[in-house]
């Protein structure tokens, strides 16, 4: 009889882990509490290590059919002064794979399509997790930033800390040649071209915990960012009538002492929820899923495989999360731009 795995959460990391385990001959059950596949979210930047993970999962060709290469992007001040440029071509030459952009829904569809029909159970709210996990060789907590599995394993001490910022995101019908991000002490605004002539945008403001955004998100955004350099005013004009996602930003603090306990592993946001300033959340979840699947497929003893997974993924992913916090802090600074540029180059070298 084959080995059996239970995956709690049908997001990017959970589906990547399921895909890797299915390829390795495991019987996999994915429990997703949502009623149907998610169409929410905007665009995702997928960096070379994560593209390599998709290749290793056998999904590289399908990914490239849906994705778009990311052109070099720049960092700006609100008046349009260029602070730095991220040379995505150099990154591609060094890594052998491009930095790519894909709508989140398309990436989820790709991962779903790799699984046998019926693998993912929707409207499947899991209760009594610790006892349920004993019925499987391995259980995987991929249930996101507010992970119940994490709390069950490690208690409330390892919880979420408010990042001091609030975020808005959306997609508009606007074709741009290149993306960029604009930094100011009070907030940031980013814009990234997507396939099909659309543009993913996001904005953040520094706010106290408990901040309540205006019911008119577009008016609030226009008041803060509408006078910034082109194409930001054009992006906001196109956002009229489009869905705008809004939410506070959190990260996991303190970092977990382990991603595994007995026959249970955590991955993705459940293991290392991070601020979005490096654009690495989805990438790290994909890599987690691949590495976890490879470890479990290669080892005869699932618990030994989980120890190996923790060794390979905990410190690297926590380093990325810590670097994201440093970049977030310095991106709002008025001074130390030389240090800021160094951090950006360092971040690019790690991806």
CATH fold category name of the domain at 4-71 and 104-161 and 253-334 = FAD/NAD(P)-binding domain
Sheet with the most strands: spatial strand order: 6-5-11-12-13-10-14
Write out the CATH superfamily name of the domain at 4-71 and 104-161 and 253-334. FAD/NAD(P)-binding domain
Please give the share of residues in helix: 25-40%
What radius of gyration results from the CA coordinates? 20 Å
Low-confidence stretches: none
Tell me the major beta sheet.
7 strands, mixed
**How far is it from the N-terminal to the C-terminal residue, by CA?**
40 Å
Sheet/helix structural class: alpha/beta
Strand content: 15-25%
Describe the protein's architecture and organization.
By secondary structure, the chain is α/β, with parallel strands linked by helices. The chain has a domain at 4-71 and 104-161 and 253-334: FAD/NAD(P)-binding domain, CATH 3.50.50. 40% of the residues lie in helices and 25% in strands. The chain is built from 13 helices and 16 strands. It has helices at residues 12-23, 48-56, 60-66, 88-95, 104-113, 129-133, 148-154, 217-225, 232-238, 269-272, 281-298, 302-331, 337-350, and strands at 4-8, 27-32, 43-46, 68-69, 73-76, 82-86, 100-103, 120-122, 138-141, 159-172, 180-184, 187-194, 198-206, 245-253, 260-261, 264-266. The strands form 3 sheets. It has a 7-stranded mixed sheet, sandwiched between helices. The chain has a 6-stranded mixed sheet with strand order 8-2-1-9-16-15, with helices on both faces. A hairpin with a 3-residue loop joins strand 12 (187-194) and strand 13. The longest helix is centred in the C-terminal third of the chain and has 30 residues, at 302-331. It is globular. This is FAD-dependent monooxygenase. Residues 5-129, 259-320 form the FAD-binding domain. GO terms for molecular function: monooxygenase activity.
